[in-house]
Specification:
By secondary structure, the chain is an alpha/beta fold. The chain is 38% helix and 24% strand. The chain has helices spanning 15-25, 31-41, 63-71, 98-108, 125-133, 153-158, 165-172, 184-191, and strands spanning 8-14, 43-53, 75-80, 82-85, 91-94, 114-118, 137-142, 161-164. Helix 6 links the parallel strand 7 (137-142) and strand 8 (161-164).
Length: 192
């Protein structure tokens, strides 16, 4: 990734898109490592995570992640999902965060040198072009290595720099190692 140490940067994460891309590549994201990656490259002003949440569920599997992100340097942008019945009579859930992400990118463009968009959604192509016209460099992170590719070709071509998520995996993937509990688990297993 091409950052200058004095660059003012912000990272915009399409949460559902990042989750899908990482899952397609077979790894989980370590969000602390992801934050640190950009914090070491330049002057990280904001790292924003966009996701829709279901209000009617008693427990949402994404809620612990959202809470963790909120307490650990991320700006979390959420909105409730909407349920509707499609033309075939199927119940569907909609939770698109594209407009919120686009508005934030446009509002911040005058105060940034470089933006990172973590999404492969082709709907963002014209947004990236608009931000570039304001003089901001844009790096897009997604993947072409999944089947099918998770990035729209037009978005990849519009970006100043495209980085495949697979290349970042060694740096940002979560290590699945047992937590250090002072040996209590080993003691319990030995005595079982």
């Amino acid at each position: 990734m091409n950052f200058y140490p004095e660059d003012r940067i912000a990272v915009f994460i399409d949460g559902a898109n990042l989750y899908g891309a990482a899952r397609a590549l077979g790894f989980d994201i370590d969000y602390r490592r992801l934050h640190d990656l950009f914090g070491k490259k330049a002057r990280l002003l904001r790292i924003l995570y966009y996701t829709a949440l279901s209000d009617d569920q008693e427990y949402s599997p994404i809620r612990p992640l959202i809470d963790w992100l909120d307490y650990n340097g991320y700006t979390v942008v959420t909105k409730p999902t909407k349920e509707f019945t499609d033309s075939t009579g199927r119940r569907r859930v909609k939770g698109n965060m594209d407009i919120e992400l686009a508005v934030d990118m446009m509002e911040m463009a005058d105060r940034l040198d470089h933006m990172v968009l973590i999404s492969g959604d082709g709907d963002f192509r014209s947004l990236v072009e608009a931000v570039q016209r304001k003089g901001v460099r844009v790096t897009v992170i997604s993947t072409i290595r999944s089947q099918p590719p998770m990035i729209a070709d037009e978005l990849r071509r519009q970006a100043d720099v495209f980085v495949d998520l697979q290349e970042l995996a060694p740096t940002i993937q979560r290590n699945h190692t047992p937590r250090d509990d002072g040996g209590r688990t080993a003691t319990i297993l030995e005595n079982a």
